[in-house]
Backbone:
């Protein structure tokens, strides 16, 4: 159990995240992790994607035990919590509503401030969690948020002053991983499995097309279709094609996706003149993109910020750190605040 910091002005933030299919709660003290609990919903696996109604119901079942566990593991009493931060959006409405309603009721019951957090800002602010051995990016920096729902390049001027300078015009990069994986017969979410097989395959074995999109924007729907046509053609000729070539196919898919991301990131660095680059979101767990950034540090002298694995996929520690910085600015929410499925940075 963590030792409780003893300073009089200790700020304890309880963070609650329920935007998609992970029910999560975390307690931070002065920006340092005291607990970080995530209940990942298994129910969606059999459907090959998140089923919104089932996600909402699972959040309702998980939220009390998850919050209870986060507070207990932090070794504090509810009365010691300074404020409650929650994900207001973007995300699935039915999922967001569970966390939002719970956060509002608990903050009201405890008589403490309520702090709404934008999930995408939180993926970026995860870099400000106090962690030994991890440096925080100086402002301004570029953040590429890559997840199952989003793909953006953001110019971060300050904690809450962010500008989207590029984004996907259709599918998110996580969907490109997951849908390609589904075509290969891998279970949802397929991204981590593609990564695993890719590590043992030849990235140049097969060639997939890179989309031509202007500026700093992305497009991934054509990529998924290219993978589908390629696999259909190959399996017509050899029904065992996937089985025989799985590692090489995964490596080639990952290689192309990472190239698409890195091409735009290099363009963004060139256009803005900012060479501090951070990544966040589920896909930032991918070994291909991580290695590409380590390489860019050496080759282009970028300063890269790569999150710890537990802060890549959805978690509540990132919500709590965003809440911490809002708490310092006394940016509290009104109890009339509501969940917002579409919520811009
Ligand atoms: O941020 P996140 O947990 O949820 C959203 O907000 O979407 O991201 C989930 C996405 C999924 O598409 C999952 O397949 C992908 O992140 N992902 C990965 C890896 N780990 C998670 N994709 C590629 N390689 C990985 N290692
Ligand atoms: Zn996310």
Residues:
């Amino acid at each position: 159990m963590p030792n409780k910091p003893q300073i009089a002005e200790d700020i304890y933030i309880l963070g609650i995240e329920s935007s998609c299919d992970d029910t999560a709660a975390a307690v931070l003290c002065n920006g340092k992790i005291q607990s970080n609990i995530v209940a990942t919903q298994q129910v969606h696996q059999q459907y090959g994607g998140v089923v919104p109604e089932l996600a909402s119901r699972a959040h309702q079942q998980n939220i009390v035990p998850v919050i209870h566990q986060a507070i207990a593991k932090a070794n504090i009493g509810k009365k010691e919590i300074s404020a409650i931060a929650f994900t207001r959006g973007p995300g699935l409405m039915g999922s967001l509503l569970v966390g939002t309603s719970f956060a509002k009721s608990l903050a009201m019951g405890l008589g403490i401030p309520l702090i709404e957090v934008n999930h995408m800002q939180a993926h970026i602010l995860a870099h400000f969690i106090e962690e030994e051995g991890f440096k925080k990016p100086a402002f301004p920096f570029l953040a590429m948020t890559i997840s199952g729902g989003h793909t953006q390049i953001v110019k971060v001027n300050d904690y809450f002053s962010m500008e989207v300078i590029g984004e996907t015009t259709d599918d998110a990069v996580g969907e490109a991983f997951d849908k390609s994986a589904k075509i290969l017969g891998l279970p949802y979410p397929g991204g981590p499995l593609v990564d695993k097989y890719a590590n043992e395959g030849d990235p140049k074995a097969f060639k997939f097309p890179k989309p031509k999109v202007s500026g700093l924007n992305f497009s991934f729907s054509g990529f998924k279709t290219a993978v589908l046509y390629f696999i259909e053609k190959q399996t017509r000729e050899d029904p065992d094609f996937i089985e025989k070539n799985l590692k090489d196919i995964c490596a080639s898919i990952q290689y192309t996706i990472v190239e698409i991301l890195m091409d735009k990131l290099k363009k963004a660095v060139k256009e803005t003149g900012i060479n501090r680059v951070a990544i966040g979101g589920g896909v930032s767990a991918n070994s291909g993109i991580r290695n590409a950034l380590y390489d860019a540090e050496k080759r282009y002298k970028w300063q890269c910020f790569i999150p710890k694995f537990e802060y890549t996929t959805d978690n509540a520690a990132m919500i709590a750190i965003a809440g911490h910085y809002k708490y310092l600015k006394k940016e509290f929410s009104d109890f009339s605040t509501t969940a917002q499925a579409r919520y811009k940075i």
Summary: The first helix runs from residue 52 to 74. The two ends are 35 Å apart (CA to CA).
